[in-house]
Amino acid sequence: MTQTADVSDLVGFTPYNIVELPLSVSTADEYLTIHWDNGQSSDFHYLWLRDNCTCAECVSTLTREQMFEICDVPLDIKAKSATITNQNRLSVQWDFESHQSLYHPGWLKAHCYSEEAREQRKILPKIWDKQLISQQLPVHAFSKIMQQDADLLTWLRDLRDYGITLVTAVDTTGSALKSVAERIAFIRETNFGTLFEVKAKPNANSTAYTTLRLPLHTDLPTRELQPGLQFLHCLVNDASGGESILVDGFKIAEHMRQHHPDDFKALSTLSMSFYNKDKDSDYRFKGPALVTDSSGAVVEVRLANFLRGPLDIPADQVTSLYSAYRRFMQLTREARFQYFHRLNAGDLLVFDNRRVLHARNAFDLKQGERHLQGCYVDRDELLSRIRVLERSCKLGE
Amino acid sequence: MTQTADVSDLVGFTPYNIVELPLSVSTADEYLTIHWDNGQSSDFHYLWLRDNCTCAECVSTLTREQMFEICDVPLDIKAKSATITNQNRLSVQWDFESHQSLYHPGWLKAHCYSEEAREQRKILPKIWDKQLISQQLPVHAFSKIMQQDADLLTWLRDLRDYGITLVTAVDTTGSALKSVAERIAFIRETNFGTLFEVKAKPNANSTAYTTLRLPLHTDLPTRELQPGLQFLHCLVNDASGGESILVDGFKIAEHMRQHHPDDFKALSTLSMSFYNKDKDSDYRFKGPALVTDSSGAVVEVRLANFLRGPLDIPADQVTSLYSAYRRFMQLTREARFQYFHRLNAGDLLVFDNRRVLHARNAFDLKQGERHLQGCYVDRDELLSRIRVLERSCKLGE
Fold it and tell me: How many CB pairs lie under 8 A apart between chains A and B?
């Protein structure tokens, strides 16, 4: 059965639908078990439950932040009694300070931490190569994502999952780029400013600001947190050349893991050096080109040939890392991995800068001007906006 | 001997002094060895040297960024000859494409990657407890750090090493906080804005904006990159209570590593959950409370009781993590670790938000107002500014 959530008993702003009903609860030494009407069950530790009590004494009704501290109850706190109420809530009477807690069944099910439930909650990236992206490239119309929250949400989920999207018919006369970015949140400022103008400049402090070819790279690998989303809005493109090339770094990483495991290991464990020196700044960062999470999945790519500094790793690993880095760069040059696109005025490429490498061919200004405008928004802001938009979707379900 | 660097042959903006002279060079299969006049020697792999060639063909003279790509030469590239020139440069003639490279001896010595040289380059934090910080708290005068670059550099090195500093006599009438922060770089924007006003507000969306006690915490553990430096500038403090308490999280972590190794392991490997939900944002992050680097050193602390979400880890580890978290929080409450300070108007506390936990006691507005202004600047910007300031120091040496 599905029942619209009773928002009033929730601490946060996210509503929870009741999809399964709790039938009964049984208790063990360190945890209790809820038995759901679909035959599944969920274990919840007493400490975990006590920690997540949402009563007005434990959570500020003003800020919705927790006031209670879990170190103020005994480590072996237990339920004196645990029951399912007529309103399908889990009610727990604690054996310490006579405290009582009430839990919403939709919230409990959504936060079940069984191995199966945790696996189901994972959102996996849709990894692509030339063939896949040529069929599935997510294309969104500027007017729709600006006006409709449902379209905005679809676009942002595509960005999260594919790491690349093309927004079309973006106004080139005003401040459209800023407006699009601010549909998500504020813009991430860097030493290149908030909005940056990608065109050939007389005193270029970056290869981006010349007419030269840029090999496949992520932006600002010199920063501890590389910018999450990169926006590149084409205002004018009358120059010859300058085509954009994008490659899913996760695809190359998976290819390496499968076919060149030693190179994969080197790139995911040994630190590259990234330097960006200018008159008034001197950014440096050392870290692996492939960042993996605790499960071994690649969650980030960090690479820009023209922003590398001298390797600073143990001497006996220098050759391994060079060998692996060369392999990665050679793979990025293969057409089977590349999405190739010549930006037209009004096109806006938005991509995950910590996953998708981008490049451009050299261009020649004899035929006309080339002018892109760019900015960054971080991954935190993308995911936050998706969650907020999903709140109203859930309410409407 | 010390000789002022010849800046003209350097790619970057950092000058390198010649401290040791290269006496001779010998070659092996994969690397060459420079023998210095102090008896030391440095090995440099051919790939590494070729990669770091600074000639105008390899590095753009305009942007000072590398154009050459190391995957365009053979993996087994070798020096056909390697010599020390009359100007004490290392000169290498390559066995591929007749390329020739020249290296500055100061730059080579500074980038030697022998185990010993790498160890010597490490900058270790000065870890403190109540006793140490009561004697060594770095105090800096507002007027000095604003006017003198040498004082600015001393302040920033203190911030980097101690993770805490007090700036005194900061003007409370204008926009002094912004001016101080911008002595480093631009301010990091968050969903709380660029400058935030810490005072009791009617519709508080954070416990910070109430009169309530705040337990020891880092700010915004809900973000993938917690803000690096936190600035808290006291404009008015006529309320009773509201004293500030700061604790070096690295000290607590080291104490746990030594006395409670299982708790240390749990906190440094199991993910905590951090949630910050508001009407228009919904930030969440999962990660360990203690972040360690590849050598096992603690490099970051991430903790705020009032911003925690439900633990989402394997069921058989829930008790371990709660036990460890409780231990950590109990330790932060011990006076022997705490720096205690009542902020006066004009005081500006600046501290490493990813290392030093801060708290404040509840306050009562019957006696008068309490108003702090705050902002964040990231660690990348701090380190960049230190490097830029050190360039001119080196030139003056």
Answer: 222
